[in-house]
Amino acid sequence: MEIGKQVKIFERRSVLLVFSAAFLLATPGFADESDTNWFWPLSGEYLAEGTYVGEGDVQRGPRKRVSDFDEIDSTLRLVLTPRTKFGVLRLGAEWERFSFGFPSKTALPNTLQSFSAVIGLDMQFSDSIIVRAEGQPGLYNSGLGHLSWDDFNVPFLVGGTYIYNPNLQLVLGVSVNVERKYPVIPAAGIRWKIAPRWLLDAVLPTPRLQFEMTRDVSLYAGATVKETSFRVDDQFGDAHGIPRLNHAIVTYSEVRTGAGFDWKISPIVTFTGEVGYQPYRDFDFHRAEVHYHQDGGAPYGTISLHGAF
Amino acid sequence: MLLMKPKMLSVQRHFSTKACALLILISLFHIGHTIARADAVSELASFSIFDKVDLAQLAKSDVKTAHGPPMRNPRFLAVQSCYVSPGSPAQQIDALRRWDPTRHRELKVFLHSDLPSNPTPSNFEKLKNAPDNASVRSFVAATQKLSSDLQVSRDEAKKFSGGGGGGGGIPAPVAAFWADVLSTRTKNFVSGGMSAQPPYDHAGPSIRASDEVNGLLREQEKIRQQFSGFLGATAIGRGAGSLRPELYWELLDVDDQGVVTLGASYSRGGAGGTYQAADVLYYASGGYYVALTLYQLWPVTVDGKASTLVWRGDMISAASLGSLHGVERLGSESVMMKNITKAVALFRRDNSGNR
């Protein structure tokens, strides 16, 4: 018997491969030194965000112009992410509201709002591929005044991340929304840790180039891309002189480009501030063939509190 | 097996005594091997995440990896893997001993050296020959400004006299500082095990490597029980044990940062040709607090060939892991699994011609 025989295990060095991998998606420098996750086994993520966009313009055809209107975009989201045998579940809710300061008689809704559930799953298909399937069933309309089942929609996305190595991941996915002009939109992205303090996170809807300034503060430059479809109420068209807009679907799209900072206040709370310019905005009643496109951009500012636990 | 028995007995009546004896012998031989395989698989199922393993299938495939159980401490992460390799467990242990992973550049180990049980700063002279790369420069810079990211004790930090610079690699004062820290910590490990290691308290809360490794094991109770006898004879998470460790130090890259680390390896043969082994990195200057890899090896027969069923548990405690949640943690575990698969594949490939 060889009980007690001691041998040298050189394979220990192979363990080291593991270490850099372990930090694949960790925000650089953000450390949690507490012994216990007080929310365990509950885990989740949250976001409370507000954006003010200054006065901008949109135009419909050569003569219909809507000038100098501002926008407030508010978002609240809470998603629980319990670990299951099949992967990480994503169960939660989201509320988002766009409020526009349109001049009277503008054939655009002053409010676009959604209340939705978040139901999804992050699954590991192999040690290189993680797939997310997530739907947001809910009400997408122009306010709570005229609720109907037609306001219900289930936009969803399916996307996969290919982990090439700890510093480089490729992302491919599709967003599906049957109410949109183009119901299926594919997208690709890349997450590349260029250098120890530089990260290119070019993944929609918030592609960014990040620089880790200190242990708890990161700076970034990037964009925010939004596109959601809403149903306006039954009398919206009549009230605005275009009857075919009654009960119509409008898809609102906007792109913001700017720079900001993330300040990790605590392991579960991050404060973000961002300012920039909104170069693209679009209101498209595509079935009614009424389309307002960007005519003049506007500056914006965003603050948010977000985190994961 | 019990259902088969009456049938076997009825067949025996038609054979001569000699043939019958041979048949029984062959049957027993097969039963014996089946039992050995069943014992290994059932023991594997009893403490690991792998509750169902088909040995024949596993022998034909790559390493099988799985996430470890979710753990309460956000700093902890664990991955388990299993695979079948040709040869006996003793041969596997021997192959592990002979394997030189530094041939594979992806391991990012810049310096490696074995250590005697009573090391002096001269055992760390290789530090002066460290390569001049971004990772090592980052390590030097962190040392020179006694960065809060450095994992040393307050007393150790006080010993740094500063200075140095110029000429690539590690400047002499920096090398001397680390040689002193590492030799003292190695002596502490030899004399008092992990419990005698000074805490990481130079900046921030006090973290003890022994608490971390014990926490990792406590949150994986079945594994702790499986290895309790073996670990009890080591210095892992406790005072000096009865088993003599193989000691070493390394300079390596962790997340683009140079890190010096101290490690110890143990192994012990058990009943029926089984083996248990452990490799602990009980000190690191940054990147992670502690890392532990446990191995359980069983002799099995697959397709008539002597083979080894290997279970491997990799566990790590690191501050950076505390900020990972949901899919981020899933992603990190995936890469950890991928890298373990790669490491095992390299090991198996390197040793495929040795049998």
Task: Describe the structure concisely.
The complex is a heterodimer of chains A (about 300) and B (about 350). Chain A has about 300 residues and is mainly beta. Chain A has helices spanning about 10-20, 235-240, and strands at about 45-60, 65-80, 85, 85-100, 110-125, 130-135, 140, 150-155, 155-165, 170-175, 185-195, 200, 210, 215-230, 250-265, 270-285, 290-295, 300-309.
Would you give an account of this structure?
The complex is a heterodimer of chains A (309) and B (355). Helix content of chain A is 5%, strand content 60%. Chain A is mostly beta strands and 309 residues long. The longest helix of chain A is centred in the N-terminal third of the chain and has 11 residues, at 12-22. Residues 1-33 of chain A have low confidence and may be disordered. Chain B is of the alpha+beta class. Chain B folds into 2 domains: 1-47; 53-125 and 207-354, 2-Layer Sandwich (Alpha-D-Glucose-1,6-Bisphosphate, Chain A, domain 4), CATH 3.30.530.20. Chain B has an 8-stranded antiparallel beta sheet with strand order 1-2-8-7-6-5-4-3, with helices on both faces. Chain B is globular. Mean pLDDT of chain B is 83; it is low at 1-35. Chains A and B meet through α1, β4 and β9 of A and α4, β3, β4, β5 and β6 of B.
Order of helices and strands of chain B: HHHEEHEHHHHHEEEEEH
CA gyration radius of chain A, whole angstroms: 23 Å
| SSE-based structural type of chain A | mainly beta
What name is given to the CATH topology of the largest domain in chain B?
Alpha-D-Glucose-1,6-Bisphosphate, Chain A, domain 4
The CATH C-level class name of chain A: Mainly Beta
Task: Examine the secondary-structure arrangement and name the CATH architecture of the largest domain in chain B.
Answer: 2-Layer Sandwich
Number of domains of chain B: 2
Number of domains of chain A: 1
The shape of chain B, in one word, is globular
Strand content of chain A: over 45%
Structural class of chain B: alpha+beta
Portion of residues within helices of chain B: 25-40%
Q: Count helical runs of chain A.
A: 2
Tell me the major beta sheet of chain B: 8 strands, antiparallel
In CATH, the topology of chain A is named Porin
